Every structure is written in C-alpha cells, then in structure tokens.
Amino acid sequence: MLPPAAAPPLDDENLLTEILLRLPPLPSSLPRASLVCKRWRSLTSDPAFARRFRLHHRRNPPLLGYFHGVFDGLPFEPVRFEPTLEAPNRVPPGRLSLQLDSNLRVLGCRHGLVLILDWPQLLVWDPFAGHQHRLAYPPGFDPDKSNGAVLRSAAGAGEVHFQFQVVVSDYYETCVYSSETGAWGSLISTPTPSGNSPDSDTRVRELQLWKRKTGFDGVASWEMGRTVELGKLFSMDSHDFLTIQGYAQDNNLVFLWTGRSVFMVKLEPFQCEKLLDTNKWDRYYPFETVYATGT
To answer: How far apart are CA 168 and CA 164, in angstroms?
Structure first.
C-alpha cells in the first residue's frame, strides 16, 4: 500500500501563520492576504494574529507619514496627519487625525504613539487602537518652555496593551512618567552641554553619520562614518541654512527645512525626497508603526 499523501504546506495552520507573519509590514499586506480565501481572512483578522504581526515587525516599522505641528497659535486646530506612502499603502489622513475642542500641539511620536500637549495636560494617543490617556504635567515644569517624548514600554509592545513612558524636560531637569505606576518619578538633573542653551536651534549645513560598534572585548564605542555636505546637496548659498524639523529613528531619516521647502532625507542608503514647499517654520513628527489590520 502507498503511504498517505502529505498535506499541502499551506493546509498546516501553524506553518501558514508563520508565513503570513513574514509578509512585509505595510498597510496593504494583510488586507491583500485576506482576499485569498475565507480561511486566510479569518486568520489575518484575528486580533491575536495582529498582535503577533506587530510584535514580529516592531524593529522595522514603515514610515506611514507625519504629524504636522502647527505654530500659528490658532485655537482648536486639529492634529493633522499627512501620509507619505503611495497607494495601496497610503493611509487616509482622516484615519489618523484628531479633533478636540481645545488647543492641541504635538510634542512627539514613537512606537506608534503620539504625545500631545492639550494645555495644561498631556495626552498620549494610540491612533490605531483608539486609546487615549491624559495625565497632569509634572510639577515645576512650564508646558510652554519644555519638551516631551513618549515611548511604548517593552510589555506594551506585546500582549499588554497601552503601557508607555513619557519624558518631559526643560533642558535643566527631566522627569519620567510610567503608566504602570501611574506617577511621575523623581527629578533628574540634565546639564546643558557646553556651547548649547535653551535658545540654541538646530541649524545645520552638514550631517555627520556615526555608527555604534562593539569590539572583540565587548566594549561599545562610536565611530564616525561619513559626512554629508548638505549645502552642496541643496544648492545653498552662504546665507541659507537647514533646520532639522523631525527625525525617524527606525527608518534612519530626518526632515530638513531649507526656508523654502521641506525634504525627507534617508541617511542609509542615502536618498532625498521633497515633501512640500513652504516658507513657514513648523515641526514635522514622523509616524512609524505597523498598521496591522486584515480588512
């Protein structure tokens, strides 16, 4: 008697899951896979699979776009999202915009979270999950004279939803909030580096690329790679300057404003793309995350 024929690989539920987990972390990947058949649709739309998909790609999330930080002082301005990907991966701006009856200002984005100053409170927002968490500004800090950053905790990246930390700094002191404890920690002294002050800007004419390397003895050190002369790249004269208006860590790129246009510059491999023309000084906060939806 002949041995029974082996089942096709894609009939193995575990194997199929591992294959789908390795699809590119782009917004169109899971919706396209869901169109193959009902079985694939059921798998890709499972919330547990979506969590695994986000966790699997957490170190290489795509840049979906950026939030626009407007500094014109107009009341009740929405938090506006501008997509940078082309169709079919382009996320509609309205999907990631926030409108509240108050004055809002974006302070930063990281790990799929957005930190917003809803004066005098802070708002941590997860646009895709719809989660919002408000917290009071730490005592002793002026919301108009300090900066903030948000990052998702290690636990929040996995099975536990919406655990994060918020960092607020006024150049001289820093304070960290943990959603796990629900409280601000002790003040940390942060001396201003020599030559810098709260009035220092981020005008640049060249970029120096540094790499972190670990030697055979296990000791890590910084090593300078190459220098990019931005003045030549953007045909600048002696009176022009560039301002860093945003930085995306996972995609290793910066947003640069020339006074006339905003460029998105990817550092490795080096690529440059114009985003928009504007003579207005604003901030741009790159939004990197895995958009895991199966429909």
So the answer is: 13
Distances (CA, A) of 221 to 181, 194, 208: 34, 21, 16
The C-alpha atoms of residue 286 and residue 254 are separated, in whole angstroms, by 9
Q: Tokens standing for 294?
A: 């199966």
Per-residue pLDDT tens over the stretch 239-294: 667 788 888 888 888 888 888 888 888 877 778 888 888 887 778 899 999 987 65
Q: Tokens 């301002």 label which residue?
A: 243
CA distances from 117 to 4, 108, 163 (A): 64, 10, 19
**Between 47-56 and 13-21, two packed helices, what is the crossing angle to 10 degrees?**
50
Give residue 74's Cα distance to chain centre.
25
pLDDT digits (tens, 9 = 90+) for 77-99: 667 889 999 999 998 888 887 77
Helix (H) or strand (E) holding 231, with range, is: helix 230-233
